[in-house]
Write the structure tokens for this entry.
Amino acid sequence: MDAATLTYDTLRFEYEDFPETKEPVWILGRTYSVFTEKEEILLDVTSRLWFTYRKNFPAIGGTGPTSDTGWGCMLRCGQMIFAQALVCRHLGRDWRWVKGKRQTDNYFNILNAFIDKKDSYYSIHQIAQMGVGEGKSIGQWYGPNTVAQVLKKLATFDTWSSLAVHIAMDNTVVMEEIRRLCKSNFLCAGAAAFPAAESDLLYNGFPDGAEVTDRLSQWKPLVLLIPLRLGLTDINEAYIETLKHCFMMPQSLGVIGGKPNSAHYFIGYVGEELIYLDPHTTQPAMEPSDNGCIPDESFHCQHPPCRMSIAELDPSIAVGFFCNTEEDFNNWCQQIKKLSLLRGALPMFELVEHQPSHFSCPDVLNLTPDSSDADKLERFFDSEDEDFEILSL
């Protein structure tokens, strides 16, 4: 059976339970014991928003696809890692989803932002159409670089979340660039000099009453995405321990990447296996009710998550982190510096205070779309994505 056409009910009986092991289970900065905390592990996994292929949604662009089966797996993984950022932003890392329990308005606001319709901030429609500007036709497979660039652009319209999204290129994270981005002195609601009207909130997928909070903030919550290539055709074993430690950090949003023929959202590891959510099952599109609530059970993976050997990971990935405060960011920097001293582990990226001299212009970091340098960068991103696609055939 083609994995792209499996249904949720088919899949739910095919996953293995966690192995009986003394190895700790790490899920997005939290550690668990299989022997004493199995229920807590599954509850944590189930609480992550799970976006899969959908069918029978409104046609993308009015005349385009009505399903993303077969081509949208990386787009769905991008939705999942960004949804985790919104959960941390509005609900907190310790929030849990319980089947049948009434959730808060903020939860439904987040879910509405990803519903498959053209006027939701991070819908498959918005991602696919924004990807055209990145050189990707609607229905074309994305690599992790492209989906990161698209999500950054879409986040500028999400005034409710008011996120600072930074994509660190060239395997380099420049601290001063991030502080400049996040420590803006203007109102935190994102262009709050022009506040969104109620109709704007409704247009962008939020029910009436969605509230913009934290308008006066000295730090815009940071979503840091780092596209990386950890080998030529296979992952270099020297990076494996470093990759594991990324899942141990409390700021972790996980990793988007894949293995041959598929993209996955990696949320943790146990032993030498990665733990991931798989978007490769087709479910019917869901529509919110008049009050903005959505039948939400199909957006949560209610079976044990998938696992795969770290050695099988395609080397082209994007790692994500969320720093809600400046203190979170400073703590993350300290952890990365300590990680660089880990014996036998190769750093996946470089952390520097100032922009390196070989970065000829700020567009390397800030990606101004209208500059010729940014055009060159976009072509570079596309070539990287093509490499990923070739490796994934």
